[in-house]
């Protein structure tokens, strides 16, 4: 395969992949019906706080170099560089340098028939024990993950639906959101849901330097602790599902397991059939260990949540917390 066709192939893969955490991001419907002609969609609907990347980031490109133009508001002198020196704070027993591979990836999966676990990208097979990540579990369990990197809508309805069905969900919230809405976080914690680190500003990590990435994660930890008085759990999600092997290692080194997913939806734009759409999208891909990604900012998701919880239980699944999902050793 020539370099050119390789690039083209990669672009097609990326264009059909279903990127979640798509507080704005991509893409096409998952699965066999996915069309390679589907182009990345940007919707301002789920834009969290104003951030340059969210207006300039239509899609990942297969170029291995981060684009300095997309780096938001931070020192241009901090140029991305492969970090091969272990941090001073790193476990002294761990002398292995972290991956220098910055090939950009955008999470996706290949949907199969209802009830069958999807296929996952080839690159997952290359993840090492220093690149802690999970994307699907096993058994009759479902992991509902709610991305709150965008607008916080229908909060009452959401919490009521979860509570009435006795479902504990996993929330991936941005620091900016909880800083502006501390009560939102307090209610979620009070209801016993799990909260994970979804960065401070929801900036694409593939555009950031190591120091900027550390700051995104640490800033979230600080604001979370200010509001709850507790340390945040050690699970994490990349904004837009954009990552590279180096960043996966870096996040692991900071103590986090990255959570991807095995169901996501085009829920960053209005749904043609209202609440029927998220219901069908989820039920048609329900499988063992299903990690479901839904965005808080979709009103149709919130309207469908009660019915989704009931139907998943009716089909014999239990809801679990992502903390039950352990990365490969
Ligand atoms: Zn997100």
Shape-level CATH architecture of the largest domain = Alpha-Beta Barrel
Q: Count the helices. How many?
A: 9
| Radius of gyration using CA atoms only | 19 Å
Shape: globular
Mean pLDDT: 80
User: How many β strands by DSSP?
Assistant: 10
Strand content: 5-15%
CATH topology of the largest domain: TIM Barrel
Unreliable spans are 1-94
- CATH homologous superfamily placement of the largest domain: Glycoside hydrolase/deacetylase
**Ligands, deduplicated:** zinc ion
Q: N-to-C SSE series? A: HHEEEHEHHEHEEHEHEHE
CATH class of the largest domain: Alpha Beta
Structural class: alpha/beta
> What is the terminal separation in angstroms?
34 Å
Number of domains: 2
What kind of sheet is the major sheet?
5 strands, parallel
Structure characteristics:
single chain; 329 residues; alpha/beta; TIM Barrel; 2 domains; five-stranded parallel beta sheet; three-stranded parallel beta sheet; 9 helices; 10 strands; disordered N terminus; binds zinc ion; hydrolase activity, acting on carbon-nitrogen (but not peptide) bonds; xylan degradation
List the helices and strands and how they pair.
Elements: H1 3-16, H2 52-56, E1 105-106, E2 133-134, E3 141-148, H3 155-164, E4 170-173, H4 175-180, H5 182-190, E5 194-197, H6 210-228, E6 235-236, E7 242-243, H7 245-253, E8 257-259, H8 276-283, E9 290-295, H9 299-314, E10 318-319
Parallel strand pairs: 2-8, 3-4, 3-9, 3-10, 4-5, 6-8
Antiparallel strand pairs: 1-7
Bound molecules: zinc ion.
Description:
It contains 9 helices and 10 strands. The protein has 2 domains: 28-54, no CATH class; 112-324, Alpha-Beta Barrel (TIM Barrel). Residues 1-94 have low confidence and may be disordered. It is globular and about 45 Å long. The chain is 29% helix and 11% strand. Strands 3, 4, 5, 9 and 10 form a 5-stranded parallel sheet that branches. The chain has a 3-stranded parallel sheet with strand order 2-8-6, with helices on one face. A two-stranded antiparallel ribbon has the order 1-7. Helix 3 runs parallel beside helix 9 and helix 8 packs across helix 9 (299-314). The chain is an alpha/beta fold. The two termini are 34 Å apart. Zinc ion binds at residues 21, 23, 147, 149, 198, 202, 239. It holds the Pfam family Polysacc_deac_1. One of its GO terms (biological process) is xylan catabolic process. It comes from Paenibacillus oryzisoli. Residues 59-69 have a biased composition (Pro residues). This is Xylanase deacetylase.
